[in-house]
Amino acid sequence: MLFVAHETLLSRPPAGAKDGVPERVHLERAASMGHRGSREKLARYELPEPVEYLLEWFRELAATRRVGMTGTEPLSYADIDAWARQTRRTPTSEEVQALIRLDGASRDPEAILTEVSDG
Known about the structure:
Helix content is about 60%, strand content about 5%. By secondary structure, the chain is mainly alpha-helical. A two-stranded antiparallel ribbon has the order 1-2. Strand 1 (about 65-70) and strand 2 (about 70) form a beta hairpin.
């Protein structure tokens, strides 16, 4: 979840930025000029290799999610069920729960990262 929350924040423009350029681009520029803090921020969270497939599944699901008046809608069990049938995948109940948690991390990354820093 931390990886997804972090990646989501890096894909957004920094607070107060008027250029609309994602945070990742600003950090990559600074890192290429030797700014150590930027390099560290870019590499803050690693995705454990054994769960890389879950991130791929999540990205497939997220690419088809609906957008409502208040932003992206959460993934539902019906969304996951339809995706599983269409892709002939058979996620376990634990994998479904992981996909739901990844979705929450992508929709509210600040809450996830705040939870970690407070804990």
